[in-house]
Specification:
This protein has 194 residues and is an alpha+beta fold. The chain has a domain at 61-184: Glucose Permease (Domain IIA), CATH 2.70.70. It is elongated, with a radius of gyration of 23 Å. Strands 1, 2, 3, 4, 5, 6, 7, 8 and 9 form a nine-stranded antiparallel beta sheet that branches. Strand 8 (161-168) and strand 9 (171-173) form a beta hairpin. The protein is 26% helix and 26% strand. The protein has helices spanning 3-30, 32-44, 176-184, and strands at residues 81-84, 90-92, 97-105, 109-115, 121-130, 139-140, 145-149, 161-168, 171-173. It has three helices and nine strands. The structure holds zinc ion (ZN). The site of zinc ion has 4 residues, from loops. Zinc ion (ZN) is lined by residues 78, 80, 82, 163.
Length: 194
């Protein structure tokens, strides 16, 4: 066996291994959860918003009551704002973000969770239904349809409304001032196609 041919086999094997690693890397990178993680990481490093559009179509911020901290059953405090609208009114994402939960359980009923700028989680609850095809790892922007206003969860039988909450690393805080600030800057959501 010549010196050259003794090198060819290990070299070919090494090339194949490197190719396999590259392909595996590329495949991983193409996975929705990977793309979603990259986007969530990018957003986490952005500042949290100080003004937000109202996520319910056709509702002005000035018509939303500040019910943050109001007493609720079981000694709970209201950790969000309630945005009342006719059943079936479109609910849009208020921010750029990544969908991290589409669930139907507990107090919130049909709910969508979006992680947005500053790593804050946005909670859209009591939905009548979800936007068609919406799923975890979907990337959204202000105006992306998430679902429609309803009365699911513990809102059953009450006037249909969106419960909207924002959770920072330190816990929930009041979205109401941000919605008012959004109204002043005229940042109404315009529906966008997913
Ligand atoms: Zn509420």
């Amino acid at each position: 066996m010549s010196r050259t041919s003794s090198l060819v086999l290990p070299l070919a094997r090494w090339t194949l291994v490197m190719l396999a690693i590259a392909l595996a890397g590329y495949w991983t990178w193409r996975q929705p959860w990977m793309q979603a993680s990259a986007e969530a990481w990018r957003l986490a490093r952005l500042p949290a918003p100080t003004a937000l559009p109202v996520p319910v179509e056709g509702v002005r911020a000035r018509h939303i009551a500040d019910t943050w901290g109001g007493a609720r059953s079981g000694g709970r405090k209201h950790q969000g704002v309630d945005i009342f609208a006719k059943r079936g009114t479109p609910v849009h994402s208020a921010t750029h973000g990544v969908v991290i939960g589409v669930k139907d359980y507990g107090l919130g009923g049909k709910q969508v969770w979006v992680i947005g700028p500053g790593g804050e989680r946005h909670y859209y609850a009591h939905l009548d239904d979800f936007a068609p095809g919406i799923a975890r790892f979907d990337r959204v922007q202000p105006g992306t349809l998430l679902g429609h206003v309803g009365d699911t969860g513990n809102a059953r039988g009450t006037p249909p409304h969106l419960h909207y909450g924002i959770y920072a690393m330190s816990g929930a805080y009041n979205p109401w001032p941000l919605l008012q600030a959004g109204d002043r800057t005229g940042s109404a959501v315009r529906p966008v196609r997913r």
